[in-house]
Amino acid sequence: MSEKFDFGEHEVTEDGSVTRLAGWDTHQNLDEAQAFCKKIAESHYENFVVTNQFTPAEHVEHIQNIYAFCRYGDDLGDDAPFSDEIRWKLLDAWEQDLSEAARDDWNGNPRHPILKAIQATAREKGIPRQPFWKLIQAFKMDQTKKRYADFDELRRYCFYSADPVGHLFLYVYGHDDEELRALSDWTCTALQLANHWQDVARDLDQDRIYLPADTMTRHGYSYDDYLSRTADDRWCALLADEVARAQEWFDKGEELWQLCDPRLAVDLMMFSWGGQAVLASIRKQGFDTWRKRPRVSKLKQFFLLMKARRKWRAALKHAV
What is the pLDDT of residue 14? Predict the structure, then answer.
């Protein structure tokens, strides 16, 4: 895993007012802004690559811009060395800059270079402001909502935190279709769930518990058990339930593969297989994600890449 990208320092006054977001008023030329986004994307620290050899060349830059937008929001919401209240204000400043970027059909004058690049992507691909706005709302939610009563509440969070990413990919590949967006939600939410169950310890370090309270209650597992990171039969049983639910969502998302640009379908397969590999890793270690964070081995990633290569070759024959 590579190091997280260093965006620089945000400036906040003693009374909590945001005076400057890291990166504001830098790289204001579009070429420089897009090069900045590329640098962020190439320093990724995810389980799987952002763009790969199967991504059509004409889409790479746009996907890198979108990734940079997501990573910067993640930095504001998770890594900025401030209280939840100040992080919320940083995100609010980011949201205001997004609104400026989207002004007059994406012809405003944002201060951040990532939003300069996003403007170009949004104009070319016909992307509305809403999916970007939703992602910021998810980061804001993380500053104020730390517990989830049931899966409906968690699903609502995924509506903001995960589903918009799929919608953005669809726009990049030329799909503006509500049915396809609804189908992509299955995979995106499943990916978010897999990430939550992979990162229970990391999330708890930030006082975030995404596991629905009713699932814990059903298995006789309390918040005190959670806070003490108790990994017993109750924990393994309840996490097995949630892993099974995530698997069901991955399965339902596969319908989209037959309906979208076949080159996008290869990317979707990679995302889905990667998320399912995380679930498989959780199962393999007996659902104890407290003592060891589940990971997808380099060998497994290689096999998934080879599997995708075969699909990609077939997709090229059918690409429009």
Answer: 86
